[in-house]
Amino acid sequence: MIQSIVFLSSIVILVLLLGRLYHVLGTRIDQKRFPPPGKLIDLGTHRLHLVDSGQGSQTIVFEAGLMSTVLSWESIERELTKHFRVIRYDRAGLGWSDTGPQPRTADRIVDELRTLLERTGVPPPYLLVGHSFGGLTMPLFAARYPSLVAGIVLVDPVVAAEWNPPAEQDRKRIHIGSRVCRRAAVLSRYGVLRFVAFLLRLGAGQVGNRLVRLISRGATADSASTSSPWFWSLPLNERAMASIFWIQEKYCIAIASQLERLPESAASVSVLGSFSDKPVVVLSAANTPAQRRHEHIAIATRLPRGRHFTAEKSGHWIMLDQPELVLQAIREVADFAQRKNTVIGRNQSAVLTSGS
């Protein structure tokens, strides 16, 4: 009996060690195959990945969605670099950035972004552009550092009212999502996620998806699979790198913490009220839930220079579905920022199709 236990224990330890070696070697190979497109800036506690491109007297700073990276802005970045300096970065734990201090709250993220811009030598003022989760961080940045901000564009942003406090269903979503991510972090350490990604790339989708569903048990059926509509709505370059980024322990830990701290992050934003006296444009997707769109309109109404638009041909990723609308909003805010005496009318809300 004792010999059997020792034998089985030895097998388990050996499998874990081999899995760990498999993941470490695979990570090294990935790092050589996919080097960061930008540079890593040392903040003292960790390094953040930053892509600095273009030139111009005005600087645009992009913030990606909850699970996204610098890649989510590539489709419109090329157009903007002709006339603007463009800054994209990966939050701690995401993309090419290092793991950062915990917990991952909006307050910490904003402080790190400020330090990043300062250490990179990017001069203010900044035109802030935030997608989804950026609806929490960019208003907080603007309120905390008003003299550094020229204007803001929020692209189908998360709103503080959704999570402060969260409804019981949303609280459960946070709990399930963070639990799945914490579980994935442990499995990542021992090469399980890497092996699943390998199966999916190999074409063994049926086996791979069964393992994904097993790892994601507790999550809704339509999200615990690579055939999920949510997954296929991601930008092509983000999907292509999912098998590299999403299997990393740092990524799983960062997403788990961001989810767990959503109520705290939302509470920090909720108390801001009118967070900026600079030009602000809020863009809603056509399929944005009615309550969120109502909050989008309310945000723009509270701001002295706020405007709201609905992109009627777009889903959540407006910069993919109707990139010209995001570009238009950025250019308009940049133009208004240069004309300091211009006041944008209040209570303005409109529907945009393709350039109106």
What does this molecule look like?
The relative contact order is 0.13. This protein has a domain at 39-164 and 273-352: 3-Layer(aba) Sandwich (Rossmann fold), CATH 3.40.50. It has helices at 2-33, 74-80, 106-120, 134-144, 168-189, 192-202, 205-215, 229-232, 236-245, 249-260, 262-270, 290-302, 318-321, 323-338; strands spanning 39-42, 47-54, 59-63, 85-89, 126-131, 149-155, 280-285, 306-311, 348-352. Helix 4 (134-144) crosses helix 11 and helix 6 packs antiparallel against helix 7 (205-215). It is an alpha/beta fold. Strands 1-2-4-3-5-6-7-8-9 form a nine-stranded mixed sheet, with helices on both faces. The chain has 14 helices and nine strands.
Based on the model shown, name its key terms.
50% helix; Rossmann fold; 356 residues; single chain; alpha/beta; 9 strands
Give a short synopsis of this structure.
The chain is an alpha/beta fold and 356 residues long.
Topology:
Blueprint: H1 2-33, E1 39-42, E2 47-54, E3 59-63, H2 74-80, E4 85-89, H3 106-120, E5 126-131, H4 134-144, E6 149-155, H5 168-189, H6 192-202, H7 205-215, H8 229-232, H9 236-245, H10 249-260, H11 262-270, E7 280-285, H12 290-302, E8 306-311, H13 318-321, H14 323-338, E9 348-352
Parallel strand pairs: 3-4, 3-5, 5-6, 6-7, 7-8, 8-9
Antiparallel strand pairs: 1-2, 2-4
Please name the fourth-level CATH homologous superfamily of the domain at 39-164 and 273-352: Alpha/Beta hydrolase fold, catalytic domain
Tell me the strand order in the biggest sheet: 1-2-4-3-5-6-7-8-9
The low-confidence parts are 341-347
CATH top level label of the domain at 39-164 and 273-352: Alpha Beta
User: How far from one another are the termini?
Assistant: 77 Å
CATH topology of the domain at 39-164 and 273-352: Rossmann fold
Strand percentage: 5-15%
Reading the helices and strands in chain order gives HEEEHEHEHEHHHHHHHEHEHHE
Coarse structural class: alpha/beta
